[in-house]
């Protein structure tokens, strides 16, 4: 199992990396409708994935789309971890009142589906990439908070931590050399889980049309834009979904089994 | 403890349930519409969204109108497929010489679905409730928008005999007879209001070939044959208007045989059905125009030279080809082709020429300081089946002449709010004609009285006295030649100032099974299923 | 002794119930306050949005009728008291009462979600148990595949696949909608399965299931994956194998061991994972509804939010949040009482 995990770990990293390259390089400009006369043409030597309905190189759009999806999910993930850690910090060392209120608030928060949180946010922010990221990162705060809390409490009370403390390790030493190496694999696993959830939810919300700019290359939005061609050019619908599923499958296979 | 045994019990019967369920699937078969030769009992039509309400006086969406088109009828109607007036619930009508008095002689022996006989008194109800704001059926929450727009010249309406009603106008209006054929003037039963009160907006009672039975919101509206119909009886026992929001699903339901006809497909989705003789595609140019408005409040776009350059940059042919797959024509003027006022000679005012546009725009570097905002919306409308795609194409065209454009997408309602405040630089919108009169388009777009914040239909907020004068004159003239000249002048002023750029006239598309007979597209885009029948292939 | 045990159980249950009730109250006040603020922060007056020709007098009259001209705090109080009373106002778009509309759409979503949940749990249990039971690579791979499928394939894309395969290629199932309207419509609760059973019509029941089939399959993969994953994690626990060996030594049949004893032991985990993810399931239902044109709360709510349909947004959001919370707490309570180890633990502390 561990051997496979490692292989998938490398595969995931390279897939994510490859996607992110799409942010900086694509064979053609994914926004320019340079090939309007070739619209709907299928794969050819110069256009490996064909041309979409508005005359853009579809391969370039997919590549940039994968890059954007991954980048948005990564931003959402870091935002989510930051908020969750701040909440955890406050809960662990803040005033008594907050210590009681925060877990209660999280308990309520968890009851609200992320899509609904997205909708409520849409009531007062206009649909855009940023709004989507905010909705997704906020929606998953309870999950991150709860898991981080479990990890922290488990590690904080572990015997070896106590031992280091008794031996006179300073706060920083404790954090850097004792807690961190033990927290790292679990944190990484949690990060992968939340990354996968963010990718799924971002593309879901984009599919519902909440991303604003219809041309923004994001896999869910690309799928939405080509939905009308499901019968005429099924590949225009199949590719974004396949790429999304592959990315998620790799992330899923590479994360440790404890989640 | 109990839960466990409950769960266990369920798990034990699961295979039985699954077996039973799968048996039911195969017993009932899949396409439940009869493939045999005989006429089906039920005719099923599917569309993309549901009706909003069923009060002819207070609706503005096509789905509500097309539901009521089966249930209600007017004093006059457009002769099927044309814009000619035909007496309908009125047997005949007369117009006084001064053009101020219209008299209608009602047809005998017509009954509303609740049994109320049609006579002068019962017919008046429909008009009085819209005219008189103290009428008990002049509901507070209703806007009566169309009455204000189309019938503002009607001063009084009264019964002059048991079967005659008379309209008095404050000033002549050439189009009022045509307006009386449109849906706000369709008759509803006063008895229904007496017995159901405000609930009539959800259970209409008219005189039409089908009567209302049930409404499952966002699923289906169920109608049944009106056995006492005064005209030709309907061919089906039941008529079901289903709501299937997703285009793909709607198309598949047609192919599976679960529905008999549908509308609202994007042209791109029709290609499959082209060579299939099981289906008939009804398509004809609609009485509509999809346009891009340029707000008067966008000061940097006020210069007519810039407006012309923008118009020249847009490749409208590409919009027709790529966004509508040819089911549209390029709009040269802000009125549908063939309308009164359309110039018959000379070059159209807007020609596609990106090079010339680039040359002009290079003189105005101020345009590049920040992106130009192009506002668009998500839900398809008859004049723009895919507004997002059209915005994409326009953005690309404008970026090709070195402008920067940001697309702002909203749902249709919010888009309308922004548009009616003139709160945009460029905005996509359209208009579907009601009565086939040029005034219904040109006054809507260019009159200063239509440029009132929050309710503007002149969303460019274009104000010009000469234009206003011409529009008022055109409305009151009855001589066709004179009117033609007036509206030609209106179009000259429009082409000079260019407050909006007309883009396309889309075709109305309805797909039916080939067995369906008697279906005819209307200029007003209303769908009438009363005459529809079934003829096996 | 037994009586004492029962009494203790009851006491623990009551304490837990009281706690949940107290939090439910908190949820109610916090959620309603947040929703109310959000709705009132929005620019754009909902009333003038509604009217195509909003003249100020008319808008003022309607606002007065709806009580929108009162101070905000009164409006809020009015909102929560009328929510409790079940008087949820009228939709500004359709003019129908929100209560009537919700009673049309909510059963559709709940039917979809619960049938999918039911099928998902069965699929998940089936896959996990088969993998464990038959010890064969095939079953293990099926279980792994199910887990991966449910968690990694975007539900809206899966929906398209199901439509293409189930409807276009096989032609077995309708691709969308909820009922075949050439049949008479079952009346009653709005749950078509119950209504058609009550009407005693097999054809109605058949149509109901036929229309349910594709969306339910699509939505059920997510709970199936969750259940399957949780069970597989538990099966890896060596203590479980000790228990199985002990039961075998007692001479019980394999069937009895796995489907009664082991399942009972693991049901708490299943209930918890299903309960805590009910919110996500509802989210998935929104997407499923969009793909399959299912006439449920998802579309209703999205449209209400986009059209600023004040009372619909306020009341239905609150209702869904309360429901999701109720289901999560019920799952907690169930897990608490169905797990013998938890129970024994609380016994020993007394």
Helical content of chain A stands at over 70%
- Number of strand elements of chain B: 20
What percent strand of chain A? under 5%
Number of helices of chain B: 16
Low-confidence stretches of chain B: 1-34
- Average pLDDT confidence of chain B is 86
Computed Rg of chain B: 26 Å
Overall outline of chain B: globular
**Could you say which structural class the secondary elements and strand pairing of chain A correspond to?**
mainly alpha
Oligomer: heterotrimer
Which percent range fits the helix content of chain B?
Answer: 25-40%
What is the ordering of alpha helices and beta strands of chain A? HHHHHHHHHH
Which strand-content bin applies to the residues of chain B?
15-25%
What does the largest sheet of chain B look like? 12 strands, mixed
Computed over alpha carbons, the radius of gyration of chain A is: 22 Å
Principal-axis shape of chain A equals elongated
Class by SSE composition of chain B: alpha+beta
**Kindly, what is the distance between the CA atoms of the first and last residues of chain A, rounded to a whole number of angstroms?**
15 Å
Low-confidence stretches of chain A: none
Q: What's the main sheet of chain A like?
A: none
